């Protein structure tokens, strides 16, 4: 009886059962009235026969005995055959014109009414079902055109609505895939635009440096100076390309974070090691502080990348003689990294935008960086289920906080 799980089908089935019960009750009532008519006719015939026999001087005792007599004799059968009252004509005898024709008409009317009710109910049921199928077809056609504003009927039971639910799940998958493809296209478009914009400056500077080196080839000091600047431009181009590739992999979901138990001191040491030379060259100090045995559950390489990007951002916004402090602390529920600097700080109008890709404040226009490091760090941390935040005061420095749940 699975077909009764659907509400409309269940209603139609109840309607059919009710109609059948109503017809049976109506026919029963008609039968009762018809039986009463037949009984009245038979009593009238008995009264007429008794009156005739009494008028013919037949004694009342004989008449009474005749009504109670049950034995059939050949003489009686022969007499009734002669007058045409046989078993073959018994129904006609009972159902005279007073009862026979009305009974046929009643049964015919009851049958017609019952058929009409069933046909009307079936027509309404199938019209409603056809409307459901038609509406579902329109919605599915829109799904095929990547239009997901409308939805199939839901909240009902039954096989057809289970099918609608499966189609809705498929449509949600198609919608998610379509949105991902759209975001990937938009990301690729923006990425190409930003790459061309970001890489244009170091390439132009590199070309200018090479022209100066060629023109001043005999001047050793000039050659050294602009060779150093050329190397810095090449390093910046390489860093920009690598950051863009990592950001592309992160945004398109091609990175699988392999989490395992890691020592925080090792992550920080590796992140700092790559930047010590730059800090020394720029006259800045990098200090670390934390429990040597502090352990967290994360992807070591990518977490090192995130911490390293925060340190690079601190170096970019700290003047000569500045200090960058990296600390970590483990609590019962959270493992936290802090990257603190005493640089220029972040303006209040910029602090809510600094994690956006390629975002650079007006005060950062003369500094290194392309606006990718913080966005990449945010993507790495949140991709592992962590969070990243910042506290800053202009002119006093900033504190970036990375939190991982234990």
TrEMBL record:
Q: Which reaction does it catalyse?
A: ATP + protein L-histidine = ADP + protein N-phospho-L-histidine
Give the Histidine kinase domain ranges: 194-406
Matching entries from InterPro entries are given as:
BphY/WalK/GraS-like, HATPase_C_sf, HATPase_dom, His_kinase_dom, HisK_dim/P_dom, HisK_dim/P_sf, Sig_transdc_His_kin-like_C
Organism domain of life: Bacteria
Q: Quote the Pfam families the UniProt record gives.
A: HATPase_c, HisKA
Q: What is its EC number?
A: 2.7.13.3
Q: Which PROSITE patterns match?
A: HIS_KIN (PS50109)
What general EC class does the enzyme of this chain belong to? transferase
- Indicate the transmembrane segments per the record: 12-35, 100-123
The yes or no answer to whether the keyword Membrane is present is yes
Tell me which GO cellular component terms the UniProt record holds: plasma membrane
Q: Which UniProt keywords apply?
A: Kinase, Membrane, Phosphoprotein, Transferase, Transmembrane, Transmembrane helix, Two-component regulatory system
The answer to whether the entry has keyword Membrane is: yes
- What protein name is recorded for this chain? histidine kinase
What is the source species?
Sporofaciens musculi
């Amino acid at each position: 009886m699975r077909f009764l799980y659907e509400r409309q089908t269940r209603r139609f089935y109840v309607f059919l059962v009710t109609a059948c019960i109503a017809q049976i009750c109506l026919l029963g009532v008609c039968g009762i009235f018809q039986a009463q008519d037949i009984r009245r006719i038979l009593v009238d015939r008995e009264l007429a026969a008794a009156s005739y026999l009494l008028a013919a001087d037949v004694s009342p005792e004989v008449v009474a005995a005749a009504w109670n007599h049950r034995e059939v004799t050949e003489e009686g059968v022969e007499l009734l055959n002669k007058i045409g009252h046989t078993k073959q004509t018994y129904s006609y005898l009972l159902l005279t014109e007073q009862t026979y024709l009305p009974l046929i008409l009643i049964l015919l009317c009851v049958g017609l009414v019952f058929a009409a009710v069933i046909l009307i109910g079936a027509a309404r049921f199938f019209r409603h079902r056809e409307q459901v199928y038609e509406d579902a077809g329109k919605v599915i056609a829109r799904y095929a055109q990547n239009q997901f504003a409308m939805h199939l009927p839901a909240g009902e039971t039954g096989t057809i609505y289970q099918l609608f639910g499966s189609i809705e799940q498929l449509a949600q998958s198609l919608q998610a895939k379509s949105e991902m493809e759209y975001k990937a296209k938009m990301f690729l478009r923006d990425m190409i635009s930003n790459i061309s914009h970001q890489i244009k400056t170091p390439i132009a500077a590199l070309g200018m440096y090479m022209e100066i080196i060629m023109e001043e080839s005999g001047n050793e000091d000039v050659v050294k100076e602009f060779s150093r600047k050329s190397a810095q431009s090449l390093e910046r181009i390489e860093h920009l390309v690598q950051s863009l590739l990592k950001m592309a992999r992160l945004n398109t979901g091609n990175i699988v974070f392999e989490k395992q138990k890691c020592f925080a001191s090792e992550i920080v040491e590796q992140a700092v090691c790559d930047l010590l030379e730059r800090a020394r060259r720029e006259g800045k100090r990098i200090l670390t502080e934390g429990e040597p045995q502090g352990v967290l559950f994360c992807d070591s390489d990518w977490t090192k990348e995130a911490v390293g990007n925060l340190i690079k951002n601190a170096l970019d916004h700290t003047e000569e003689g500045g200090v960058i402090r990296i600390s970590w602390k483990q609590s019962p529920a959270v493992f936290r990294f802090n990257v603190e600097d005493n640089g220029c700080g972040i303006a209040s109008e910029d602090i809510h935008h600094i994690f956006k890709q390629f975002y650079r404040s007006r005060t950062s226009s003369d500094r290194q960086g392309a606006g990718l490091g913080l966005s990449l760090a945010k993507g790495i941390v949140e991709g592992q289920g962590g969070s990243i935040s910042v506290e800053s005061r202009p002119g006093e420095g900033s504190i970036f906080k990375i939190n991982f749940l234990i």
